[in-house]
Amino acid sequence: MAVIGGGLGTAIAYHQAKKLHSLGIEVDTIIGFRTQDLIILEDEMAAVSDRLIVATDDGSNGHQGFVTDMLDKCIADGTDYDLVIAIGPIIMMKMVSQLTKKYGIKTIVSMNPVMVDGTGMCGGCRITVDGEIKFACVDGPDFDGHLVDFDEAMRRQMMYQFEESEQKETHHCQGKEASNA
Questions:
Q1: 72-119 per-position pLDDT tens digit
Q2: Strand, helix or coil at 50?
Q3: Cβ atoms 32, 5 nearer than 8 A
Q4: CA angle at residue 154 from 148 to 155, to 5 degrees?
Q5: In whole angstroms, what is the distance from residue 157 CA to residue 102 CA?
Q6: How many CB atoms lie within 10 A of CB 39?
Q7: Alpha carbon distance, N-terminus to C-terminus of the chain
Q8: At a CB cut-off of 8 Å and minimum separation 6, what does 179 contact?
Q9: How large a percentage of the chain has pLDDT more than 70?
Q10: Across-strand partners of 167?
């Protein structure tokens, strides 16, 4: 089995790998980051993996490239995975799912269940899975990666990108300093 974590998704992937490893399941873990400075949980992942592979986009730690490059290499080298769990950026999960579909490997992805109301009524985490509308907060967050409409999910994720970046430029947190005034 392979557990793949991309960026901050590695924090969630860690718990998946830890549980599987505790059950005696052989776990290859592949984690990917843009650069060495962004790597998290490397030692912890090594402790719960039979094999840990680190990839960075810039090659500053581990293998240079993406997690999909490393997964493809493992498969080409003869590793036989019956399941892949991928958690991270939507584009990463999409690429992992496309790769594993080519090889006929069952793939579970964890979609973002960020929600406003906790019931799915807000629709903030709405995705299409096998042509059906699903809500990651209620129906997931885990789905068959071969059935998720990742292009729609990416479009939805980009919907408020302008407003969010504009808010980041003008927003100033009012922490302790403001409350003590």
A1: 999 999 999 999 999 999 999 999 999 999 999 999 999 987 766 666
A2: coil
A3: yes
A4: 115
A5: 26
A6: 19
A7: 55
A8: none
A9: 86
A10: none
Nearest to 15 by CA among 55, 53, 48, 54: 48
Do β-strands 106-110 and 142-144 pair in parallel, antiparallel, or remain unpaired?
A: antiparallel
Q: Which of 127, 138, 85, 91 is nearest to 108 (CA)?
A: 85
Q: Which three-class secondary structure state does DSSP give residue 81?
A: coil
Q: What are phi and psi of 76, to 5 degrees?
A: -60, -30
Burial 102-114 (b: 16+ CB within 10 A, else e): eeebebbbbbbbe
How far is the C-alpha of 58 from the C-alpha of 45, rounded, in Å? 21
With contact defined as beta carbons under 8 Å apart, do 35 and 56 qualify?
yes
Residue-level pLDDT at 161: 67
Confidence of residue 157 (pLDDT cuts 50, 70, 90): confident
Torsion, CA 124, CA 125, CA 126, CA 130, rounded to 10: 170
Q: Is 3 helix (H, G, I), strand (E, B) or coil?
A: strand
Helix (H, G, I), strand (E, B) or coil at 10: helix
What pLDDT was estimated at residue 156? 81
Question: According to DSSP H, which parts of 25-113 are helical?
Answer: 42-47, 67-76, 90-103
